[in-house]
Amino acid sequence: MFLNYRIIFFYLLLSLFLLLGCKKDPEVQGDHYTLEECKKELLDAEDYIEGESIDLIIIEKKERKMYLYKENKIQSTIPVSLGKNPIGNKEEKGDFKTPEGTFWLQRKLCSPKYYRSLCIAYPRPEDMKRAEAKGVNPGGDITIHAQPKWNADGKGDSYTLSRNWTQGCVAVTNAAMKQLWYAVREGVPIIIR
Predict the structure, then answer these.
(1) pTM (global) more than 0.85
(2) How far is CA 186 from CA 22, 123, 172, in A?
(3) Which candidate in 54, 102, 130, 158 could, as Cys together with 68 as Cys, close a disulfide (CB 3.0–4.6 Å)?
(4) Res 8 pLDDT > 80
(5) Is 162 helix (H, G, I), strand (E, B) or coil?
(6) What CATH topology corresponds to 24-192?
C-alpha cells in the first residue's frame, strides 16, 4: 500500500513538472505559431531593447554565418542556413538563391510559419532592372526568419543549421531570432556577401 502512494506521488510530481516546466517557447497551435504575443509587442512598441541594439548585420554566405555589429565591433556571431542554391546572387524568382548586396531591414513580421521574420528590402531598383533586362521576375519576400513550426522547441536546430533549405531567405534558430528581434529596428543595414 505504501509503495502505491509513492508511485502515485511520483507521477503527480512528474505531471506537475511537465505541466509547468515544459511550456513550449514559442507556442505552436495546430499548424502555426501563435501570434498574439508578437503582435502585442509590435503594437505596444516593445519589440526593441536599446541596450541590446545592433547597427549592422553582415551575412557571409560562404561561412554560413551572420555577424551582428554595434559601433564597428562584432557583438555576436550566429550560424545560418541559406537558400537551397546558395552560390551566386539571386537572379530570379524560384532560383533558391539568397540575394547579395547591401540592403536594409524593411520591417518586422510576426510569422505563423516561421515564428518571427525580419523583412529585407529586396528587390532593390538595380535588382529589378537586372531582372527586367533578362525578362524574368526578380522575386521578393526575402527575410531573415526563424524555424518552421516542427522545430519550435529547437530540438532540430543542428539538423536545420547543417544544410541550406530555404527558398532564398536566411534562416536562424528561434533563440537567435529572439536576440535579433529585440536588437534591431527598421532601417538597420544588412550586407549579404
Answers:
(1) no
(2) 33, 16, 19
(3) 54
(4) no
(5) coil
(6) L,D-transpeptidase catalytic domain-like (2.40.440)
